[in-house]
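User: New here, any thoughts?
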Amino acid sequence: MSERQHWAAHQERGSFWLMKLTAFGIRVLGRRVLSPILYGIVFYFFLFGRSARRSAWQYQQHLATWSARPQLKPGHWRVFRQFMAFADALLDKLDVWNGKLDINHIEIVDPGNLRAQLRGARGQMLVGAHLGNLEVCRALAELGEQVTMNVLVHTKHAERFNRLLGEAGATNLRLIQVSELDPAIMLQLSQRLDRGEWLAIAGDRVPLHGGRHVRVNFLGHPAAFPQGPWLLAGLLKCPLNLMFCLKSEGRYRVVLEPFADTIQWRRSDRDQVIAHWAARYADRLGHYCLQAPWQWFNFYPFWKTDDDSRA
């Protein structure tokens, strides 16, 4: 089993149990009691997760070199800061699910006026990343526009996650497993778009058991990105937008950015078209990584090279 597969398998199981812990904390403990527990778990993760430390180190090194900002070069404190930002994001998830994060507490940057389209006749797609806190999209789905947001995931535990979301009070947020883009899933997603529902998917993580991916330049080095978001947008014939939720000075800033009105290809050029859009996405992801350099939460060998030293 490869290092990446090993990480992914544990991540799928760990995410479910972490959400169960968080859901329990919502009902019983609250953030004040849960905070030291989660910080302790993440600190343990930092101390004994050698692969995760090396991956964070590599990311910070690539970001510093690519941006020509030597102040971003990794050190043990900077790597630890990235882990602590992850713990802080987990605690913010608790506040989101507990209804303590109001839409008025979020700054929404929306130059394309996408919020006005959330109640349109047909839904659209949002592509996010494991940068910042995508749970804040619930503030749009639940607290703000009352639009149904379908989050497309690769986990096999989608239905159990949905039950926990319901227990936590989320009624307009639903997880849908899309490990395989079979005709039944495509029909379901098309019907949801036709009902005015929106789709949300992360564009920076290849599925657990592989799947279609493309290698494009990210922070100056080739990395694997999933083809899924761009294939889905083309097959479903829906507009595609980017969404990033970054935290600055204790406040979340949600950036909504129009990305593609349509994605089209012919059989002869499909791979080139998909690679083009994946590369454009990687460029925008790098841009937003610079705005929140410690909030990148892909703690695995993203570039799959052997030159990630130290840590």
About this structure: The mean pLDDT is 80. Residues 3-291 form one domain. The chain has nine helices and nine strands.
